[in-house]
Design a protein that fits this description.
It is a single chain. By secondary structure, the chain is of the alpha/beta class. It has six helices and eight strands. The mean pLDDT is 90.
């Protein structure tokens, strides 16, 4: 799958939106990637995650973990492509926790999967959760890196299927706000 084919799959799914958006980080942007729309057609999500696994190359891992809700489909499909287990972390009081009988064992090798990374806060929380069990984060995999190359997770290899460099603005500097354009918050809360 070429980069152009990946981008076309996003466009075909209606996942690349234009407007005035509030991101989870609190910053504003004129573009938004709604990854959930890609997974509306499961065969597309499966193909994209299989391509992400292929581009990542060989990795010694036991399980994929995703933060709920955005990373759920990515984690499931990435684990399918790698033929390993998949679990997810729930949000509880803005913290990530394991529920539903999910567990990580000391020394277990773990891939952290997410749909989109802008600043990487949720991924970093997931990494800390993995480490709290004595498990070892061996890779971070995302469908879209919209950090402009700024996202980094220390010595943990970071893989993305698509790099999307879009402008982001602190709310007080946002040109769309200054122009009076209506603000949308299209993430998992809408």
């Amino acid at each position: 799958m070429t980069d152009q084919e990946v981008e076309q799959a996003f466009k075909d799914a209606g996942a690349l939106l234009t407007g005035h958006f509030k991101l989870r980080s609190g910053k504003h942007s004129n573009r938004f990637f709604q990854a959930a729309l890609v997974f509306k057609k499961p065969w597309i999500g499966e193909a994209l995650c299989a391509e992400l696994a292929r581009r990542m190359g060989p990795v010694d891992a036991d399980v994929v973990i995703s933060p709920a809700v955005g990373g759920l489909f990515v984690g499931q499909e990435l684990a399918r492509a790698l033929h390993i287990e998949s679990i997810f972390a729930d949000k509880e009081n803005d913290r990530l926790v394991l529920k539903r009988g999910f567990q990580l064992r000391k020394g277990e090798r773990v891939i952290v999967a997410e749909d989109v990374v802008t600043e990487g806060g949720r991924v970093q929380q997931t990494i800390e959760l993995v480490k709290s069990f004595g498990a070892i984060p061996v890779a971070v995999c995302v469908i879209t890196d919209r950090s402009g190359g700024k996202a980094s997770f220390g010595d943990i290899p970071f893989h993305s299927l698509y790099k999307l460099s879009l402008p982001t603005y602190p709310a007080e500097e946002c040109p769309m706000c200054k122009a009076g354009q209506a603000l949308e918050a299209p993430g998992s809360k809408s």
